[in-house]
Amino acid sequence: MKKFSLLFVAASFTLFLLVSGKYKDKNPYGFELGTPQILSVTSLTFGPEGILFIGDSKGASIFAIDTKDKVSADKAPAVQLKNIDQTIAAYLGTEAKNISIKDLAVNPVSKKIYCAIQAMDGTPALLTIDGDKIQAVNLKEVMFSVVAIENAPAADAKNQRGRPMREMSISDLLYADNSIMVSGISNQEFGSTFRKIPFPFSGKQDHSSLEIYHAAHGKYETASPIQTFTVATLGGKKYLVASYTCTPLVLFPMDQLQPGKHVKGRTIGEFGAGNNPIDMISFKAGDESYLVMANSSRPIMRVKYSKIENYAGSLTEPIKESYGTAGVEFTNLPVVNVLQMDKLDDANILVLQRRASGDLDLYSAPSERWF
Q1: Which pTM value belongs to this model?
Q2: Alpha-carbon distance 258 to 260, whole Å?
Q3: Are strands 192-198 and 179-185 parallel, antiparallel or unpaired?
Q4: How many angstroms separate the CA atoms of 86 and 82, rounded?
């Protein structure tokens, strides 16, 4: 009887290990089933296996959502959706003037488009666009995890212009090197902050304060956040490639962005004052890799990474000419009023553009037009 009991216990323990191991393999990211309490959908980016990361500035949190959108597609269908704001508004039962499109992200696995919407009353919505079909993303009883942003501005804090500072706690997101990278501001003395949060979320959160020389302003700055960024390998070393309001382009060595450190970036370009960089992607065409950036008051800008790699200078003196440019060479493309963009597939770029007519169109641009 004793022998049987021991065998039973051993068999049960073995079964437990097998079952728990199998479950762990199915849920390697520490997700739990529930309904995430998302207060705003500010920024979107994708990680492994179709996992969607949502930046919630109002809630000062990052959510990781298992979209279950994992059917692989090498090539995306062409996109040509005119007056996309009107189409989305009609789907939501309102008018285009009552919504804004905050961000777009393409699932690199399925090539399906995800769209972050905010209503005038602050209500967020998350939609998918698949061909001409628009559908709300189910965020009830899903597998997810969440991490709160440390040292975020208080919910009622405002800057000198009266703008809520919490809105700037997350300005951009990117998944790279098994981490979610976050730009924004904090409640610390040097407000401009870069955060690197390992994924799966474990409670660990590294953040560095940033400083740049802004040649258009003629001074060093620590308050304004990065507006958009990406990560690139230059000369065998990884860099954060970032742009700020009034369009300085700045490099930060990733190995210097250590927990609690104050890091000075190297300003390699000034692409024009009176402008706000909106979105940034990397794209490879032929033998060249490019940085592509959309702007509020200037055309799409294209920069060869080889030019960035070979540029050894640093801008440390003011630009004397109003709206002048300096530093690394760049090309203005004949494409203006682009509000969002993302890599659709290896041959196409997804573009959200306000046309001269006032129409807001979503379309795919073959890369051969831009490179």
Answers
A1: 0.91
A2: 6
A3: antiparallel
A4: 9
